[in-house]
Design goal:
Blueprint (H helix, E strand, L loop, with lengths): L4 H13 L4 H24 L6 H9 L1 H33 L6 H17 L2 H25 L18 H5 L5 H4 L5 H4 L9 H33 L4 H6 L13 H31 L4 H15 L5 H16 L4 H13 L8
Length: about 350
Amino acid sequence: MTAMGILTLPRVVTSATQTPDGWLSVLISGLLLILFSMVLIKLCQRFPEETFYQFSQKIIGKWFGILLSLVLIIYFLLLGAFEVRGMAEVTHLYLLPRTPFMATVVPFICLGVYLIVGGINPIARLFDILLPPTILVFLIVILLSLKTFEINNLRPILGMGVLPVVKGIQPTALSLTGIESMLVVFSFMKEPHKGIKAATIGISIPLFFYIMTTIFTIASLGVAGVQTKTWPVLSLFRQFEYTGIIFERFETFILAIWILQIFTTFVTCYYIAVLGLSQLFQTKIKPFIFGLAPILYLIALSPKNINDVFHFGNLLGYFGLLFILPIPLMLLLIAIWRGKKHVSAS
């Protein structure tokens, strides 16, 4: 969940609310997501050893299940390509302004291929390694940004009522998507009965990131300033510097960490897409891993400019919400009605 969305979230939610209360919209969205995730987990718990691609066919029939699975595969493929393009845009703007997109996109995709070939275990281990330094660097840089923190930029709370907060809930869709990956990775859980606990913790960590980032960005840049920045979070970390120490500017650290987080999201999407094709066609996964790489590259470079990238991301965010509540709820109700339940052999 911690990927491209967090870099633009303060601008998106503030543009919708037009008040300093955007962080309340993020909080409410996160709590709703935790509630919705319970429906998703309850569905997966009925088929603890199977992925969405497998149990959807048991619930709604083979052909409808395949069709819905193909939709999910396309969604994750497009989301993975979006993350790659987002990484290239940020890298081009802040780190490598004279380097063409191809020079950053190709190695990024190749690293993803290299990791995915090893299967789910190296993917999970890498994510375990990357989470602690991400939290540490984030907290350090956020605390350092207190230098530009202005509490008056967050006042008054609910000065224009609750309606602006409600308007800010929907635009957070892209940033809050990610839990739909549990439709597939849930089948790898050793203790599926702890799924709701895992999902709640998994949502709470990025939700904390989002709320803190939104608060500090608005407090430092102001409501008007946030809306004029393409990447307001990175602009926040460029607002301050500490002279006389080894590192005077800190946006490079947060950018490096977030490129790693973008990579984790890309790898997750890529793996879920190729696993789905492998299970649908009941063949080995490796041909799909290598075969989808050029397609990912072409999709990633298809947006003509940054506005197209943001529009692409917004569409994916809204589309992803279908796999968080409506579709899992529909399948869960049908499964209950038809009495479909797979009992784990263990």
